[in-house]
Design a protein that fits this description.
- The structure is a homodimer.
- Chain A is α/β, with parallel strands linked by helices.
- Chain A has 24 helices and 30 strands.
- In chain A, the strands form 6 sheets. In chain A, strands 9-8-11-10-12-13-14 form a 7-stranded mixed beta sheet, sandwiched between helices.
- In chain A, a hairpin with a 2-residue loop joins β3 and β4.
- The model of chain A has no long low-confidence stretch (mean pLDDT 92).
Chain lengths: 701, 701
């Protein structure tokens, strides 16, 4: 077992190796930050050339320090890093942060240096943050650790923030300071030679100082582990992620920057959704939401009350609420009557409640209390318009007092009153999250409601259907050693049948002669298909004829197919004919399995034809999926209406569709050797018995 | 002719009627703002109870002032406003701003007071801003007018900003000051009793101080005029709009707040797009884009270069560029070689160019110059990561010098360096627009590229086809005096034929007997339809039979239709049968006309069936449309691929589709009495001759 990160985040003593006495250098600024922020333990600067640094005794080497060291911060030139790690090991230091850059991010030599660093860390059973990172912060009052070289002082709160980009981390640290956003802990993980985002997630999961976890990521080292981890963590703590490098161009830029392999954005979306993680696009959005989780109660439902002294901002709030599925119900009559008594006669008391520009602290406080007592609303957004000559500090403070102790969700919007916020914090250290614009508050509430629903969703069951694994293992033995090849039709049918998936029955004929022989033994109408290992796009080449009613038509169809293939110069690819019952009606769907290089097997669902070709209306999840996830996949395609019945059509058997997804997921989990499965189309009807797979491909590799 | 707004925005003298000597009142703050900002003309406070205000002589009434007054700012109690207007008229003041509230927004009494105010203004040929507004600003150095009671000092620039909401206007004024966004003029138009957003637009159109126009609107008084006006203005100046009250809930809140009728958001989107207006959702977004237009050159194309000292922010910039259709091309070899010489060996020189964290002012300046000289890029985003111990002011200043005089588009991103911006402005008063995050710069460039394309688009022709108006007038005479009724099938066909639209030919039979008589005279295959004025949803009731091949089938179909209608107890609604040629294949579209209460007739286009029912994939424009607009309508549906040919299918005759839209538009323009026209389906084929309307409805009212 490697040691956990306690000594990294909660050190009692720190050695800063490579500390400089020269102001303006990174290592000077780091020591300066440690001292200025008031680190509660002892700092030991290490520098062979200085006697004292920042008025503290400096040591030539870490081994010269007599006391125990919990954490070593290494800022020496890259050539000296490995020796320094050895020194730390001898000094029995188990936790190190390597700020020094010049590793993986710089090319070949850097990569091998980083490998050696990682090896030594592993061998020594140490924990390493970095290299090429910007340090870490812990605002816990018993620790007071600002081990970064970023300007400014962190504001303390309940947010944990992991940044894969140093520059972005630094930018965010400044932004959160200016916006009254409270951090519990921050860490810049740099090149992730040892500690990754996942390691920190695991550590913060059970850390009581952290109420909400935020991450800026450019790549996932182990997406599957991330998914499994966050799926558990989000049961108790919200996790908010920015994953950049979303576009192809962005991925290219990221991989030249970090050297990491990127998963496609659809895959990332899939497993983030599957794990209950809140995905956002910008840091502003991330911290708007994070501070809501940190400073406000989780809303019971989606009903929002709005209190304002200006109409315009209220409209913006209502629009944004409605966009995100929140409702703005009318207040109950009792509340309206009570509000009428305290508000000016022209005030609107339905919801939004507009107490008009001259509203003072007393009116705001009373109105807030009344609205929070109304059982029609779950959350309250209080908007204080831009200050004219009003004492908005007094108003804000009165609101903070009035809402204290409520179990509902409260957001305060102080429009353009950045100057009021620090003063308000002094008067009311405990206050609702404060926003500059009402839209941001509305959006934050909507994300909280979504998270609430996620937390309360049924857990989901991984259902195991009876399956004939023996048959498949027998088939697999034929393909062993091969790679990237498609199973033949008989094997495809056998595999699907082994997992209870209804592939349409087929009869084969090697040539026209055989076709004639069987033509009067089969039940019409049928479909005739050209079959050949290399005839992948047979229907595009006219290799499929449908709705054949008798043996005459069958033979004519066979002639037509041969003609068409000839016109494509593909007749030599024809190995045999396949005859299947003709199925008409129903809804064509696609169920499939693909493999993402990093995340592993993904299950896919969508409707066939133009839905997938024109609208790209498909849905992915990591395998295996449980019953709840399978259901979500079905319901979250845009064209779901086609399944539930449009224009009086009957709904398809959704229960059976769900079961089919679960069976496919199980097959993929049991036999990951099948890297691509394509059930296209899988036609669904209102009755389970009619549902059938008309065509299927399975790739082995 | 009413006087223009020159005296409002460029007054030589101002009377502040209702000025107060009491600090902390709105009227005191307004005079204080006028004086503090250094108004270049004379201020005359009017207050019957004070001898002096703000050290200036106060007058008991405006008529006691001997000098000419250009602009009167009225802040008296609402009961005194009308008398004050009379006083102003006598004093020959032609421009007034009424700050006083308590008018339309407060209900019945207020509405009639405002009506009277508007009447008097009209009678006196004055121009009025307000009532219930927050004043106006003009930063022109020869005027220096801050006629508002908002805190802070405006920063001067080329942006004109109209706000329908006072509170939002005030919030924005503070925000723009903090963010180095330069205003030329600002006006809060309040209740719009006289001067509306359109009036200001018209005034700013030819005002040289205004480079870009921004508006915050909650409702449109005259959307058609707005559209016609902005369509012209955007040929020379960009117009950016926030239109709130987008959702039903938002509209409800807005109408209770402003009493105005709201157009549906789809209609608003339609005419904003048609007029080249840039629509945004938030004020941050609006001014991010506005200052780009104000301070940067319009890009020649969509190719962006990115220069950075940190990888993370560059990825965010690339992602955002790619999302908005901008490209990040590789730099040419010459530039790469030159960059290699000035950058550290590990630097990346393709694009994004990463000069690494220690990059200094010289490196940044040289790299900027080199990249701007590269013919592969049209725009440059320079990102300066958050300051560690670097002199970012020096870096920023060097960049400003290096890019001076370029004809390309340059954006500067100073991550988390709000403190550097005011200092930079002192050193480099002329500088590129500065952003806090790279995404914002990328988005601004994308909007500039879109605007550039709009400016350069072909103007578009309003084509007049030959039309038989006489026939239609004859038909109309039958319907005169009626309202809200649907034309009968014969009239529908006649109207469409009169405008050259190919409705399918029909034969009618009043009963089965007539049907038998004609059954051997028609060309098969045919379609049989039940017809009746009240049989609107005939196909849902089984009232349509298709692909009928002979007279036997025809009679059997008639029986089936009668049976079906009986089962719906609708057989008494059947007036006659209609027989039409059976058309199969092609792409079903919907072309239509609807009427918006405020904007007037709208033309609609989309594909039929699930495309409109499930995906709501339709497109609106105000009638009339020109050829370019018709083409845009066709190309901007999401399912356009269905028209241009999917999976080897031939494209439909797009030219003829365009023509059909133009013919429909012309019909609607010529005969607005037809408030609803529904050509559904209008089937298009690859050959014009095959295209036909299978069913049509026309409503007269």
């Amino acid at each position: 077992m490697r040691t956990p990160l306690d000594k990294t985040f909660y050190p009692g003593s720190i050695a800063v190796i490579g500390a400089s006495s020269k102001a303006g250098t990174l290592s000077y600024e780091l020591v300066n930050n440690l001292v200025k922020y008031g680190f509660k333990g002892c700092i030991y600067p290490v520098n062979p050339k200085a006697a004292s640094i920042h008025s503290m005794k400096a040591y030539p080497n870490v081994k010269n320090i007599n006391e125990d060291i919990d954490l070593a911060v290494i800022m020496v030139p890259k050539e000296l890093v490995l020796d320094t790690i050895d020194d730390c090991y001898r000094k029995k230091i188990s936790s190190v942060v390597v700020i020094t850059a010049g590793f993986k991010e710089t090319g070949k030599d850097g990569i091998s240096l980083e490998k050696e660093l990682a090896n030594r860390i592993k061998k020594y059973k140490m924990r390493l943050i970095g290299p090429n990172c910007m340090g870490l912060i812990n605002t816990n009052p018993t620790v007071k650790l600002n081990c970064t070289f970023v300007q400014g002082t962190p504001v303390s709160g309940g947010i944990g923030f992991v940044s894969q980009s140093g520059a972005l981390g630094a930018a965010v640290l400044k932004t959160v300071q200016q916006n009254d956003i409270g951090l519990a802990q921050f860490v810049s993980i740099g090149n992730k030679a040892d500690v990754s985002g996942n390691t920190v997630l695991e550590y913060w999961w059970h850390n009581d100082d952290i109420k909400v976890i935020t991450l800026y990521l450019e790549s996932f080292g182990n997406p599957r582990h991330f998914m499994e981890l966050t799926r558990e963590i989000t049961k108790t703590k919200p996790v908010i992620v920015i994953k950049s490098a979303r576009t192809k161009a962005g991925m290219k830029a990221a991989s030249s920057h970090t050297g990491a392999l990127a998963s496609s954005d659809a895959v990332v979306d899939a497993f983030l959704e599957q794990s209950g993680v809140i995905r956002v696009n910008t840091t502003d959005e991330m911290f708007d939401i994070a501070r809501a989780f940190d400073m406000a109660n989780l809303p019971k439902g989606n009903r929002v009350g709005i209190l304002t002294n200006a109409g315009g901002p209220a409209i913006l709030a209502v629009d944004e609420c409605a966009n995100w599925g929140l409702t703005i119900p009318e207040l109950n009559k009792r509340t309206q009557v009570a509000l009428k008594k305290i508000a000016p006669p022209e005030a609107s008391v339905f919801n939004p409640v507009d107490v008009l520009p001259p509203a003072d602290a007393v009116t705001y406080a009373k109105a807030s209390k009344l609205m929070l007592e109304d059982e029609n609303i779950d959350s309250l957004i209080v908007v204080v318009g831009p200050p004219l000559m009003l004492d908005t500090l007094g108003i804000a403070s009165a609101i903070c007092e009035a809402v204290k102790g409520t179990k509902k969700t409260v957001m305060l919007v102080m429009m353009s009153q950045d100057d009021v916020i620090p003063k308000l914090k002094e008067v009311n250290p405990v206050h609702p999250p404060i926003y500059r614009f009402p839209e941001n508050a509305a959006r934050a509430i909507s994300r909280m409601v979504t998270y609430k629903k996620w937390k309360e969703r049924p857990e989901g069951l991984y259902i195991e259907f009876d399956a004939d694994k023996k048959t498949i293992n027998k088939i697999l033995s034929k393909y062993k050693g091969k790679s990237g090849i498609y199973l033949n039709s008989e094997d495809v049918s056998a595999v699907l049948n082994a997992y209870g998936m209804p592939i349409i029955s087929s009869v084969f004929a090697k040539n026209t002669f055989e076709l004639i022989q069987i033509s009067d033994k089969i039940k019409y109408p049928v479909v005739l298909k050209a079959v050949g290992k290399k005839l992948i796009h047979k229907s595009d080449m006219g290799g499929v004829e449908v709705d054949i009613h008798n043996s005459d038509e069958l033979l004519r169809s066979a002639d037509r197919i041969i003609e068409k293939l000839k016109s494509y110069r593909a007749e030599h690819l024809l190995e045999k004919f396949m005859i299947q019952p003709y199925v008409s009606g129903g809804v064509e769907t696609i169920l499939g399995i693909t493999k993402d290089e990093k995340a592993g097997s993904m299950i896919m669902f969508g409707l066939g034809g133009i839905f997938v070709e024109v609208f790209k209306d498909v849905n992915f999840k990591l395998v295996p999926v449980n019953d709840v996830e399978a259901n979500t996949m079905i319901h979250s395609i845009k064209s779901f209406e086609m399944l539930s019945g449009v224009r009086g059509k009957k709904a398809v058997d959704l229960k059976y569709l769900q079961e089919s997804l679960l069976r496919l997921s199980q097959l993929s989990k049991d036999f990951p050797e099948f890297t691509e499965i394509d059930l296209n189309p899988f036609v669904f009807f209102d009755e389970k018995e009619k549902c059938t797979i008309l065509d299927a491909r399975i790739k082995y590799s």
